[in-house]
Structure formats: C-alpha cells, structure tokens
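User: Hi! Is it possible to get a structure for several chains at once, not just one? Here's what I have:
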Amino acid sequence: MKVRNINSVTLEFLKSDLTSINEVPFFDEGISAGFPSPADDFQELKISFDKEVFGTSPSTIFCTRVSGSSMEGAGISNNDIIAVDRLLDPEDGDIAVCLIHDEFTLKRLKVDKDCIWLMPENDNYKPIQITDNESFQIWGIVINTLKFHRKRK
Amino acid sequence: MYALIDCNNFYASCERVFRPSLRNKPIVVLSNNDGCVVARSNESKALGVKMGVPIFQINDIVKQHSIVVCSSNYTLYGDLSNRVMTLIKQFSPDVEVYSIDEAFLKFQNHKYANLDEIGLEMHRIVKKGVGIPISIGFAPTKALAKVANKIAKKFPERTKNYYIIDNEEKRIKALKWTKIEDVWGIGRQFSKRLQSIGVINAYQFTQLSDSYVRKYYTVVGLRLKKDLEGEPTINFEDIKPKQNIATTRSFDVMMKTQDELRERVSTFASLAGVKLRSQNSNCELIQVFIYTNRFRQDLPQYSGYKTVKLPFPTSSTFELNKYAQMALNSIYKDGYSYKKAGVILMGISQDETQQLSMFEYENPKHKVLMNVLDKLNIKMGEKVKFGGQDLKRKWKMKQDSLSPCYSTNLKDIITINC
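Assistant: Yes, the chains can be modeled jointly so their relative placement is included. Here is the combined structure:
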C-alpha cells in the first residue's frame, strides 16, 4: 500500500469532525431575474455539503484518494477523493474498498451464487474472481466521490 | 449497571487501521521523542518487550523479530478515539470518557436492556466502523466493571469480547481470579503491603474487615472494597480536577545555555497555565526541574529541581512564568548539556474556594486577560504567545517513525489503487 503525499494540493478538505457545518442557501423555486421576490427574505432551506458528503454520523466515514483508471466508467478517476463508510453492509452493485492479501483496491461488487466478483468499470481491466483461498475483506463502501477540477492555493 | 469499554492495545490498533499489513505483526509505539516503549501489540508482549523500556535497549530484539516501531501519533489516536467514543454514546446517555481508550457507560434501566445484545453490537460497530477492537465489562459497580473487562479481554473467544458480572457466584469467581496488583486503584505500594499480609487476590481483599481497610488504606481503600463487593461507591461525579499539572519534555537536541532553557521553561509554564485554567483552578506551588542525559555517561551529569511557594494562589501565566524563571535561575548550572526540563504545578485549589491573601494578591486584570487569551488561542490556534517564548523557532519532537495522519489531513489520506 502506498501513502502518497501530494504537496501541491493545499486546499482544506471538509473535515470529518463536523464541529462547524457549512450551509449553502437553497432556493427551492429557482431564482427569478428582475425584482427580488420578498420570499427570498424568508428562505430557510439550506444545503449542508458536510452532511451530504458525510451523513449525519461521520464517525465511521474515512476519506481516501484514488489512484488508477479502472473505475472511470463509474465516474471515479485518478486522484479523486472518495468518502468510504466502513459500517455499511455491502450489497450487490456497491462500489467497495476491498482488501486482497493486505492490499487495497477499489471495485464494484458483483455477488454471484457462490462467489464474489470485483468488477472494473473500464474495458482495459479484467474482473477479479474472489475464491475461497483468497484473503479478502471489504474495508468499506464508497458513498461519495469528490473531484477537484482546479487546485486551490 | 455499568459498562467499561476498553480499546485493545489501542495505539497499536490505530496504526493497523490504515496499514492492514501490520495485522498479526509485533508493533511497539514509542513515547514523545522516540524515547521508550509506551504501547505494545499482543505479539510484542509475547516477545517479552516490557512497557517503558528505552528503545535502544531492545534494538537486537527489534531487529531479530522485525518488530514494527512507530513514533506516537496522537493526532491519529485522538481522532480514532473520538470516533469510538461517539459510536458508543449511542448505547447510553451516561458516558464518562475515562481516558483516550477507555469509557464507562451507565445503564439506568438495565433490567430492560439486553446486555448480551448490547455487548455484541457495541463490539461489532466499533470493530467494523472504526477498525478498533474493544473489550466490554458489565457489572453493578465501576470497579467490578473493570474486573469484568479484564476477563473479556483475557478470553476473547469464550466471552465474545464482553463479560457480564450479574450474580454473586460470578462476582466471587471473578475476584478470586483477579490478582491484587491488577485491581483498579490499588497502587504498587498498596499491593505490596497487602501481599505481605497474604492478600493475593481481589476476593481476599474484600474479606478484610471494613475497619482494618479504613485504618490502613484510608477511606479510598474502603470505597474500593465496597465497590468490589457490589455496592456502588465510585460514581461518575467523583472525577476531581487534577491535583498536579505537569508539562515536561525531552529535547531533540541537548541544550547548553540558560537562554535556551529559559525559553523552554517559559513555554512549559505557559502550557501548564492553560491546563490549570481549563479546570478553573489555581496553584500555590510551582516546581521546575532540569536534567542532563543520564544515558550519556560520557558527559558530566547533573539534575536540579526547585519548588517555589507563590505568594497567592494564581493561574496567571505572568505569575507562573515569573516564579518558574526564579526557580530556573536558582538551579541552572553552566557547563552541562541538558536533555529534559519540566514545570509542575502543585497545591491546586478551585476558583470558588480560593483563599485570599492578606497582603499580596493577584492583579485582577490578569484573570480577564488570561480568559481572553485562552479563547483567542483556541479560536486562532496558538497565535498569542508570551515574550519569553521564542516566537520564531518551532520546537520539533524526534519522531523518526511517525505514521501519517490518515484520518485528519487530506495530504495524509491513504491511496487506493484501482
């Protein structure tokens, strides 16, 4: 397993310790041009990105960085950051962080009658069949992907 | 009913969460500045590595058995500890976080709770959700919950990581199994004295008469005895503010001048002052000590300490620092290479019980100023410092084998290949 230090990324990430919640106002009925609606003064709906990414109990959620291209079909690219919930029970079709012989890998789970397949989302990669002899464990289930399209200073 | 939740080999377990290849391998975690062993995995314990041993003394064993050596990473341990504590708080509203890896829970209506289910579920969600294995002891008192926890930890397969003491037969059996020196709150001195009169296990201790225990082991010993008998005497409320506050450090390089030590002592006094104020206390005594490196027998050795009685109880960093510097002046000797220094605050009293002095008293502005300063530093992150502290120099600990802050720093998160 590699632990990479990407010094060029200096932006501060939404921390899993949600002592402060960042909320963004949400205009339920759209924003009209021209005179502002008096209702805007009373808008109470807010979106919390922290809550959206980490849910309301972030204790079991960890962020990890992705390296590689085998999950591009699922919208997960090299260098993306994914939020992984360790407590969720895996279901067929989940994207999971798996441990095979103490190495981490990220794949979509396909549960067959008598075996598990780790499915890539890129034709250049082959599915991996997990046999009984394999040392295998599901480390966590991916609940979100974060993409940084521009490096912040 | 109480439950004691204890994380198994906590520091070593934290190191394994993001490095699964460390499973089943011997691990030791070192103290600040990589001095000595402060935590061991079961595998290291089995190899005979003792707690507190300086790392250089076990270099051969480390090499021979490929023991993984880690510098202590309190950022990582603190975050994982918070996660564990948050998860277990789901099970009861009454939680006392006792230390970084231990917590007591109180179950008011335990008769309606299925403790077997709670034990299994608590272990499951902490192990699966955070990756830390825990042991759980249930019992009618805190001291017995500690005993139950030890049984759960010792026999994980038989107990499924939890053990319940809920009847007399189990209580007596558990106490007979518990060595006197392993009883919560029995210090080395107490256990030696008890062993000398033939008290080898916890059950024998409970067989002593109340008056005897009261006489030789004070009211604290008597309360412990009652607690072990199943009568709750040690409550959640009994956690008292600390009676001594110490800030001590080994230096990464040896210090030869008084100026360097002055800066360190000033910083330590300042840090100790923050701790003192955080528990709304004042102190009347301040002790400063300095040591040379006792492992460098090729160099001249010296250690000095001085305790100063303050003219009035205070928590002001201005006062603490003034007297700490006086103490340092009186013990500093030229010509030595110093490796460690510390500031200890003693004679601690609470704000509300403060004794006022007849002739000398604290400048009342200090209290207000310190309050503002502490709030600023909490909010801004240690921005305001005192003149005696070196503002530019950053003191670094020796941390040769520090693991990344996997769960709190974006730069340190693990990379998953795909």
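The interface with chain B takes residues 1-7, 9, 11-13, 15-17, 57, 59-60, 62-71, 76, 81-82, 86-87, 97, 99, 102-107, 120, 137, 139 of chain A (CB under 8 Å). The longest strand of chain A covers residues 136-146.

User: Great, thank you!
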